[in-house]
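Homework help board

Subject: predicted structure for assignment chain

Our instructor gave us this sequence and asked us to write out the predicted structure in token form, then describe one feature. I got the tokens but I'm not sure how to describe them. Can anyone check?
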Amino acid sequence: MDDESCKPCKRKSLEGFGFGIERTLEDYEKYAGLKFKTRQVHQETIANQFPPIISDYETGLVSKIKYCINVYKGVLTETDYDSAAVAFLDKDGNDLYRQDITGEELMGLMNSNTEDQFIQIWREYESINQPISWRVWPHSTSKGWMDRIEDKISYE
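My token output:
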């Protein structure tokens, strides 16, 4: 190996590789199915389809939602949970997205870090609408559906 190959990479000039003068950034966004300002992606882009139809561009934009639901362990008092409904809700309380958790997963989260007073349930999905709140609704084998655990989502 010679001394040249051991040297750190040098930054190369990107001069001449800008947008140019024929198309705008907005033109590129529509071609690529992106909207940088709102951090949205077009549904067709996510599905690896051809660039979206320009006239229907705005209606197909979705946001990638990634959120951690923190549930206080003190409200999970039963030892025989077999599932829990986990949902993100719109302003009217309707489900925007729902992905349930098994009792085994729930109990695993309860026992994973005994020092922590909360369990963390992560969810990631695409949606046109931002959720307003979340709901975790545990089900006990012996007592049925327990109290719903809900909280608002803060966008600060």
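Reply (TA_rk): Your tokens look well-formed. For the description, you could write something like this. The mean pLDDT is 86. That's the kind of observation they're looking for.
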